[in-house]
Amino acid sequence: MRRFISQGDVPRKRHMQVTRNGKLVYEELFGREGFSGPSALLYHINIPEGATDISAAGDDSPEMEKEGAHVHAHLETFRLAPHGDLLRGRQWLLVNQDVRIGLAAPTSNHDGFYVNASADEVYYFHHGTGTFNSQFGRLSLREGDYLVIPKGTVYSLELDNPQESRLLVVEALSGMVDSPQRYRAQRTGQLLEAAPYSERDIRTPELQPPQNGPATLLMKREMRFSAYQLDHHPLDVLGWDGTVYPCAFSIHDFEPRAGRFHVPPPTHQTFEAPGFVLCSFAPRKLDWDPQAIFLPYHHSNVDSDEVIYYAGGTYAARRGISEGSITHHVGGFPHGPQPGAVEASLDKPRETDEVAVMVDTFRPLHRTETARQVLDPHYPFSWQTPAKEAD
Questions:
Q1: In terms of pTM, does the model score above 0.90?
Q2: d(C-alpha 133, C-alpha 141), whole Å
Q3: N or C: which end of the chain has fewer CB within 10 A?
Q4: Which residues contact 83 (CB under 8 A, 6 or more apart)?
């Protein structure tokens, strides 16, 4: 997903002596998988480790719902009230060993910088705009954007109007969030002509002038927060290059595919990470065969749980779904269009205006107590055949 780029003042060779204005510049390797994976090299004015104080600052472990029956669920997240700042106020809903899925509906921005040392992060901007600042530079965000942040990135995310913002938040606990391997050329890693987006659609940070002065940093590692008082500003970078950095991608730049008959969800895949995939449903034309049924067919996700966050438009296969709803369909039990939906769709135009984000996981997801508070108790029974049809 990330091409090699270089920004700012970068020396001719790696790991060589570099001075600017008579002062040594400090090189930092920002690497994945130890020294064996993709990386970036950053050049700091100051030693990046300097801190005057470090203290424990709480944890981010959600309270889990007492396990009951495995049922399909509808979470009415639009009922979640704004809570906390953008980081500490995240409301986790569905979790497993590989991924945590939640909502950020903040009352305020976070004061200071943040680094997630245990997970890549994906924000989906359902409502709201803002500015992302990190050691790699600045990115402007708008509604419909995905913001993908590699773990270890030091950043601040300033929402223009926090109380009017709602962001889907996904933490990848087991590895990197990237473009699907099947979209990339085997030899070069370039996105293929057949991929539903290209490198031109990926927005990368623009490096800003180095900043000075002390700063505060909140670090999360394995669900525990630590507070750092830094000697020097973390955004003191003169230049950097590499293939690991934050980036943004708009769901409206995803090029959806259609077929003569219904195409399966992998067609909509946007990102992958160990343990889950993320897909984008964007407005599109649908099937065109006169005998085609354009709604999804009934299916059993025997190897995965399916989560869909509804961000806009009309989803014809479901009743009672609103903007901001999340459906969670458990693996092993079928789900699909509710009674009457297929029949009602047969004479409809072959297109949809839906906007939704789907996360399919390869291990079972577990609900939190926050999810239980917005659970629709009637949803598991919404496939019941009406009595008059059953007779």
A1: yes
A2: 11
A3: C
A4: 89, 91, 105, 106, 107
Q: What is the pLDDT of residue 317?
A: 67
| Window from 145-159, 227-241, 347-361 with minimum mean pLDDT | 347-361
* Interatomic CA distance for residues 218 and 58, integer angstroms: 10
CA atoms within 13 A on the CB side of 385: 5
Instruction: Report angle CA 292, 293, 294 to the nearest 5 degrees.
Output: 105
What's the pLDDT at 390?
Answer: 45
pLDDT at 125: 98
Distance, CA of 207 to CA of 134 (rounded, Å): 9
Name the one residue in this structure whose structure tokens are 């708009």: 250
Residue tagged 């009415």 (tokens): 76
pLDDT digits (tens, 9 = 90+) for 106-135: 999 999 999 999 999 999 999 999 999 999
Q: Are 7 and 206 in contact (CB under 8 A)?
A: yes
For residue 272, the model assigns a pLDDT of: 97
User: CA distances (Å), 230 to each of 155, 164, 213, 247, in order?
Assistant: 14, 31, 9, 26
The CA dihedral of 113, 116, 117, 118, to the nearest 10 degrees, is 170
Judged on CB neighbours under 10 Å (0-12, 13-18, 19+), 391 is exposed
Nearest CA among 238, 247, 356 for reference residue 1: 247
Question: 48-71: per-residue pLDDT in tens?
Answer: 999 999 999 999 999 999 988 899
DSSP 121-132: EEEEEEE--EEE
